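PROTEIN DESIGN WORKSHEET
SECTION A - STRUCTURE
LENGTH: 393
TOKENS:
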């Protein structure tokens, strides 16, 4: 009975060592597979992130490349993690694996495992208890001499762990210090319940003034700003009237403000417009027109200070004022429809009233005191004062 108990203890110890070696082998396979999945998966992410950026984060492209990313990661995980780890490795195969990496064992472990395994009852019956005990104990002693197999592929485990950590750190570094679109793409591609692509896009075009109402026949400056990107050409698309056709014109960059501008002239019907640049399109806005007075022509006469010795100067098509301090400018505004009164609104200054002339035009004088903006307001049929010109400098 003592022999049987000792033999059972030795067999338990041997099976523990075999189980430990099996777990180390599975760890090696898992680390190698994880490194491959992470490395190749990150390359797939970089490719899809670049692609979705080229499509300007349209909802269709985000959905399509999100599917591509998940399918690629799933395929990599199945190929390099699930399939290699799925089959159960028998004790005999683990013993053979141990013997191949530790030739000093001289097949002792393989013989002991085969003797202890199922299906070898007749071999155990034919062998004396003492010999069976010595066979198993010899295998245990030899495996303990080599550190219970912990030396097996130690360098491979270190390399696999280092490769996995290195790939993870490299991927993190690329996301942190790389182009901003990578972080944004990561949020959209890797989170299954991310926000709608268009709302989350880092690229946008904003317009001023947006949807507004202006007097019929008036002019309107459109100001477009690009957010998150640059473009070689910025185009304004507009359509006048319900039956009108879309027209596209190139906007002009404004060096001072960094925006792009375009002046729509003589707007006499409802107009829809939007701006597009490098595939990024702004929302569609609308300019509604109503029958209100508007300045159709603005003429000016400059009267310079006496010390300059300059003669008065007339400008038939006026607007912006460029003159030295102390110059008095007489403005004559011709409205699109009769109006009872008008005024000049000076930024940070006084309001100058306009006098209605016999021919229906309005006149007033503006003294140049400092830089700024001004505009003209005219009285609507109901008596309310409405903006009737652009903002002039």
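SECTION B - SEQUENCE
RESIDUE ASSIGNMENT:
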């Amino acid at each position: 009975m003592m022999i049987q108990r000792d033999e059972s203890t030795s067999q338990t110890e041997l099976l523990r060592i075999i189980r430990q070696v099996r777990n180390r082998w599975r760890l090696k396979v898992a680390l190698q597979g994880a490194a491959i999945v992470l490395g190749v998966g990150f390359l797939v992410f970089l490719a899809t992130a670049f692609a979705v950026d080229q499509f300007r984060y349209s909802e269709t492209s985000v959905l399509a490349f999100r599917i591509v990313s998940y399918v690629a990661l799933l395929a990599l995980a199945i190929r390099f993690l699930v399939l290699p780890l799925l089959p159960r490795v028998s004790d005999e195969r683990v013993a053979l694996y141990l013997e191949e990496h530790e030739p000093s064992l001289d097949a002792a472990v393989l013989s002991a495992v085969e003797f202890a395994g199922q299906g070898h009852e007749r071999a155990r019956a034919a062998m004396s208890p003492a010999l069976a005990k010595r066979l198993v104990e010899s295998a245990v002693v030899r495996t303990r001499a080599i550190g219970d197999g912990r030396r097996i592929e130690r360098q491979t485990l270190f390399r696999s762990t280092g490769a996995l950590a290195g790939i993870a750190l490299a991927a993190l570094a690329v996301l942190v210090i790389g182009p901003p679109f990578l972080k944004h793409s990561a949020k959209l591609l890797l989170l299954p319940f991310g926000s709608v692509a268009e709302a989350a896009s880092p690229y946008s075009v904003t317009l001023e003034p947006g949807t507004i109402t202006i007097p019929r026949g008036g002019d309107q400056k459109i100001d477009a700003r690009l957010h998150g990107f640059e473009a070689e050409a910025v185009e304004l698309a507009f359509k006048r009237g319900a039956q009108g056709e879309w027209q596209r014109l190139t906007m002009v960059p404004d060096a001072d403000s960094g925006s792009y501008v375009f002046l729509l002239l003589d707007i006499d019907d409802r107009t829809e417009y939007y701006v597009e640049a490098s595939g990024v399109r702004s929302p569609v806005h609308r300019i509604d027109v109503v029958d209100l007075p508007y300045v159709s022509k603005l003429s000016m006469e400059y009267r310079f200070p006496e010390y300059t010795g300059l003669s008065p100067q007339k400008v038939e098509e006026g607007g912006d004022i460029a003159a030295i301090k102390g110059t008095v400018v007489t403005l004559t505004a011709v409205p699109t429809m009769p109006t009872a009164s008008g005024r000049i609104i000076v930024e940070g200054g006084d309001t100058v009233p306009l006098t209605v002339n016999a021919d229906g035009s309005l006149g007033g004088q503006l003294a140049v005191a400092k830089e700024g903006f001004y505009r003209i307001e005219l009285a609507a049929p109901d008596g309310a004062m409405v903006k009737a010109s652009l903002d002039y400098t």
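SECTION C - NOTES
The two ends are 110 Å apart (CA to CA).
The longest strand covers residues 218-227.
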